[in-house]
Design brief:
There is one protein chain. Helix content is about 80%, strand content about 0%. It is built from 14 helices and no strands. Helix 2 packs antiparallel against helix 3 and helix 6 packs antiparallel against helix 7.
Length: about 270
């Protein structure tokens, strides 16, 4: 459809230029200005993504704010902005954006993602029960996505880590997307909590093969190696955490990393004696 409009526009420009050079120039300028106006949110979004991938979250936030402030940014841009606000700890603003979106009739995929973002805001404010309730309501409506499975699995582990319901849900999520890092991480935590360390390690190794840059992957891998007595391997994984990006969304506190590192080093020291 867009291709047809491009053809029609080119044809119109051709005939206008044939009729009057001045009118053709004026129309061209108008079209260029309209194009800049129309695509300005996308331009800001592109710049924001570049900054985000570089780890410059403050600059990414500024760019996405400019995109949203144009007044005609689409839902996916608003969702990205909300996510970046969560990464930088601006919970109230992130929640306000998704709540504003949910006040209007929006596409089902945007609605689902907006509710997921709101659940993350609830979680970060310490309202884990509300986060699970809101997420499960969306799930029970029939909505399915990798993000929803990963988020709910994580919440259920926090709420009731040893329950069969939590394990079954994480298994269902793994069947849905066995290559997603968060879903895999949730399942290996379930195995770890059940004392099934070999199964946990199998999944952990699959995640770590991709050399991820999120703290949880290396920390949980180190936990598993520690339980299996692989202290040297555990220490190597813990040292990898220094190369990872930390944000407001990181779930492993630095003090936990330091505590496990001390335990591992002590075990290695005792082994050498």
């Amino acid at each position: 459809m867009k291709f047809i409009w491009v053809i029609l526009l080119c044809a119109a420009l051709f005939f206008v230029y044939r009729y009057s050079l001045l009118l053709g120039i004026i129309l061209s300028v108008v079209l260029v200005l309209y194009g800049i106006y129309h695509y300005l949110p996308q331009i800001y979004r592109y710049k924001g993504r570049v900054y985000f991938n570089e780890g410059n979250y403050a600059a990414a936030k500024r760019m996405f704010k400019k995109a949203v402030d144009t007044g005609h940014a689409k839902g996916d841009i608003r969702m990205e902005y909300s996510y970046i606000l969560l990464r930088t700890g601006d919970i109230e603003e992130a929640e306000q954006i998704v709540n504003n979106m949910l006040c209007y009739k929006i596409k089902p995929e945007y609605r689902g993602r907006a509710i997921i973002q709101r659940c993350m805001c609830y979680y970060k404010r310490g309202n884990i029960d509300e986060a699970i309730e809101d997420g499960m309501e969306l799930f029970n409506e029939g909505y399915r996505s990798i993000m929803l499975y990963g988020m709910l699995g994580f919440f259920k582990i926090l709420k009731d880590p040893m329950s069969q319901e939590t394990f079954d849900f994480c298994m269902e999520a793994y069947d849905y997307a066995d290559d997603d890092r968060d879903i895999c991480d949730n399942l290996l935590i379930c195995y770890y909590n059940r004392g099934e360390y070999e199964k946990a390690k199998e999944i952990s190794d699959q995640i770590l093969e991709k050399s991820p840059k999120f703290v949880e992957a290396w920390y949980h891998g180190a936990q598993i190696d520690y339980k299996l007595g692989n202290y040297a391997e555990a220490l190597e994984k813990l040292e990898k955490i220094g190369e990872c990006h930390r944000s407001f969304m990181t779930t492993i506190p630095e003090k936990d990393v330091e505590a496990l590192t001390e335990e591992v080093k002590k075990k290695l020291s005792d082994t050498d004696k």
